[in-house]
Amino acid sequence: MSLNNSSNIFLDSVPSNTNRFQVNVINENHESSAVANDNTDPPHYEETSFGDEAQKRLRISFRPGNQECYDNFLQSGETAKTDASFHAYDSHTNTYYLQTFGHNTMDAVPKIEYYRNTGSISGPKVNRPSLLEIHEQLAKNVAITPSSADRVANGDGIPGDEQAENKEDDQAGVVKFGWVKGVLVRCMLNIWGVMLFIRLSWIVGEAGIGLGVLIILLSTMVTSITGLSTSAIATNGFVRGGGAYYLISRSLGPEFGGSIGLIFAFANAVAVAMYVVGFAETVVDLLKESDSMMVDPSNDIRIIGSITVVILLGISVAGMEWEAKAQVILLVILLIAIVNFFIGTVIPSNNEKKSRGFFNYQASIFAENFGPRFTKGEGFFSVFAIFFPAATGILAGANISGDLEDPQDAIPRGTMLAIFITTIAYLGVAICVGACVVRDATGNMNDTIISGMNCNGSAACGLGYDFSRCRHEPCQYGLMNNFQVMSMVSGFGPLITAGIFSATLSSALASLVSAPKVFQALCKDNIYKALQFFAKGYGKNNEPLRGYILTFVIAMAFILIAELNTIAPIISNFFLASYALINFSCFHASYAKSPGWRPAYGIYNMWVSLFGAVLCCAVMFVINWWAAVITYVIEFFLYVYVTYKKPDVNWGSSTQALSYVSALDNALELTTVEDHVKNFRPQCIVLTGGPMTRPALLDITHAFTKNSGLCICCEVFVGPRKLCVKEMNSGMAKKQAWLIKNKIKAFYAAVAADCFRDGVRSLLQASGLGRMKPNTLVIGYKKNWRKAPLTEIENYVGIIHDAFDFEIGVVIVRINQGFDISQVLQVQEELERLEQERLALEATIKDNECEEESGGIRGLFKKAGKLNITKTTPKKDGSINTIQSMHVGEFNQKLVEASTQFKKKQEKGTIDVWWLFDDGGLTLLIPYILTLRKKWKDCKLRIYVGGKINRIEEEKIAMASLLSKFRIKFADIHIIGDINIKPNKESWKVFEEMIEPYRLHESCKDLTTAEKLKRETPWKITDAELEAVKEKSYRQVRLNELLQERSRAANLIVLSLPVARKGSISDLLYMAWLEILTKNLPPVLLVRGNHKNVLTFYS
């Protein structure tokens, strides 16, 4: 039956992420509508369940009487499609639309598919309708094909069913573990190490039952806090493979994650050798007892260890399923051995065991063993350092996070339960062995007390044995002397040996699996590029075979070296460093207060996590101080290396979140501080357009704002709002990335406006944040003003007026070649594109020439189709050769060179500062800051000021005194006394010819004609205006003469910017002033501050 044609059934498919809001896809053909209207009974709705069962079946709401139809549907065996597979079409226009809550809308309800990453292993990524698609006017009568409808529904052009089918094929054969087999079993096996069987009794003997229990609880406190932190991080989002490395790197960033990930993987690899050597030593002891040594103890350990590692490698490479089965078998053996010990404590002791110190449960023994009795050289912390490695291993389950069905559920549940169970076992064994076995025993069954002997008051004495000679000479038995106490106490001794084998082999197997998994995740992130080779995985489970081989080589090397006593403390510290960073990650994420920190596991506290981190660091020094120092040095070196390399990753770490919080707090704190002249710094808005189009303008500004002030590169998009906003939004990230790539410490900002002046006005008013607001506007000189439309000139001069209105300083920069290199960039991009196409075509032709014999010409067409090579390709190839043959000079080589002139180190010379008008000191401050930069440090300041001819020396002394009080170094001071004399006739003639096309000449016409011309061309320069400001015009021309005479050889000229009084100076006359003032000169900065002090000589 076809469900879509059924008139009375509304099908809701419940995806894997069941939502409360269901979307019904309603069949809208006329027949079904008619039938549906006949049935007036309301539908019965069934509330969505979040249970596991509900996630695996369909929810179908049916009306009364349709149960039979419902049953037939389920029995028919047809596969129900998801919502994304249905396509509704309007019956009249065939226009595609979606149905949400029964209405025609593209607005989609919340679904998990919208929030997945591209390439997610848990399901397909689906793109929701964009805001533009929902907000913009819907085009009418647009027929959309079913294929495009699929693309809309599924987000990326791949039909949902097909995508799901592909994903199902990919997942076939993949082995995933639940929380028991994947986490609980592994953690228990790793925590229950050899220490349980051969050292715990000695620890109880040294520290006593009381302090022994305290040591166990203190160790458990460290691991429990770490477990809580691990659980919180693991439940704050989807966890991929990589274990501790993944958790730390995604929380604290690649710097911490990359450093700890490498040493954590190495520690696991060396731990394989440690556990295997522990196993081999036990086997060699058995060989000694049976007098079956192969060579000698050391070489026998190497031989047995090597064979064992090869076998373990075979199990690991065979697949995770085999490894998991082996772990379960080892756990069963281990549990039997532990139960065997407890059974042995209640089996009545015989004379042989009594002579060795075992008397079953005795209150006197418990009382005697409750307090500590440390031997020479031992203490609480030394005993704690010996026991603590036994409590580690809590990350064994997290390390295979990529192989877990649900890491978010499995890691917290399995890890915390494993810590609880193993702690109970450790406490039980410690208390039981302390209540059954005395500290010292001779092992001599004849050391019994006979009547008449004096009793020394010990527990053994009260039980009929005299072990008093152990105080004067060493004994071989008892808690303090015999490491095989558990084997003696147990009901069947060989089971304890089997337990030791199980503990060592399971820990070795877990480490052998963990190291490659963590290392593979680290290599996949490409933090260390040289290790990319080990990122490759094989098979359905993406097994890191190369990592297995590397781990095997490292383990074999350390087994053959056999110096594990030296390396063991460092390995323990490596693990503790990982625990410390996990705890710190949890604290840091909480402290950063990021809205993205929402762990589902709520049993944690940020301060407890911080305490856990500090505790781990303290334990590192308790275990071995020099190993702790080595660990910190290695981690610091790796941290610096990763920070220097700056891997191109963005994981939304808490470091980023805290940086934002710190920046926000600092910005808010700044608002409470009043501005002070000593802290003034140029904070600039630079009208660069796209920052890459006017690099010279940005470079000179960056030279005096870098590391000292704010720099914002601004662009105004003028035109139809819709197009402008789209263009602006699409380029924001690219242009900010260009700034970062070129190491320019600046921000990029853009606005869309109806005209250029309105956009700049918006930027001047709204840019910045709190005290970090721009106080200086930097613009390039409008070189083409004489050819530009009048509106452009009005906007250009208008923004200068606007800046002064907002009390913002202005800097106008002029270089002879101009700033805009956008045309050069376009040509370069086109050349690069054509060159890439040419290389691709050549590669395709070359490949197909090799395949021509076997595949004929079909391969060529196939590959050419992939590259979209059409019949016009030969023509395009010809154009490549034509363009490449062009000389670079045709693209204005001088302009390209000029655009980079401020990037280079400036030659030895001068910066000439013409401080003609006191603007608060900005004209002097900017060149002073430039001289502090490395590129400008060889340039000395020469100061030029106006003065009277008859007071040149006095004014020179006064200016030198002022500059010395400002603590500004200078090479020379020049007092210009002839600024106000008339310029020579040639210079004035040039100025008059410049403004001639823009003059009104109303004085030569009758009054009526003159008034008419003023109304028609109000922008022209009138004779009255020219006469009123004639002295100022003389000054601009005269200044150019002086500049030509004195500063023609300067590296840079900084000059006071003349101010045009609003309503008095026309725009064209002002542009003529700027033109004649800066004509034929080196690079010029026209500067005018806001007439508020930016310099002070007060402390």
Automatic annotation (TrEMBL):
Annotated signal sequence range: none
Region named Disordered: 31-52
UniProt-annotated location(s): Cell membrane
The entry's keywords: Cell membrane, Chloride, Coiled coil, Glycoprotein, Ion transport, Membrane, Phosphoprotein, Potassium, Potassium transport, Sodium, Sodium transport, Symport, Transmembrane, Transmembrane helix, Transport
Gene3D superfamilies in alphabetical order: Amino acid/polyamine transporter I (1.20.1740.10)
Key word Calcium present: no
Domain SLC12A transporter C-terminal: 694-1099
Lineage top rank: taxon: Eukaryota
Coiled coil (residue ranges): 824-851
Main localization, broad class: membrane
Segments passing through the bilayer: 191-218, 260-280, 301-320, 326-347, 379-398, 418-438, 545-564, 570-591, 603-627
Reaction it catalyzes: K(+)(out) + 2 chloride(out) + Na(+)(out) = K(+)(in) + 2 chloride(in) + Na(+)(in)
GO biological process terms held by the UniProt record: cell volume homeostasis; chloride ion homeostasis; potassium ion homeostasis; potassium ion import across plasma membrane; sodium ion homeostasis
Bilayer topology annotation: Multi-pass membrane protein
Bias (Polar residues) ranges: 31-40
GO molecular function, one term: sodium:potassium:chloride symporter activity
Pfam families in alphabetical order: AA_permease (PF00324), AA_permease_N (PF08403), SLC12 (PF03522)
PANTHER family (UniProt xref): SOLUTE CARRIER FAMILY 12 MEMBER 1, SOLUTE CARRIER FAMILY 12, CATION COTRANSPORTERS
Family under the similarity heading: Belongs to the SLC12A transporter family.
Protein name according to UniProt: Solute carrier family 12 member 1
Chain's gene name: SLC12A1
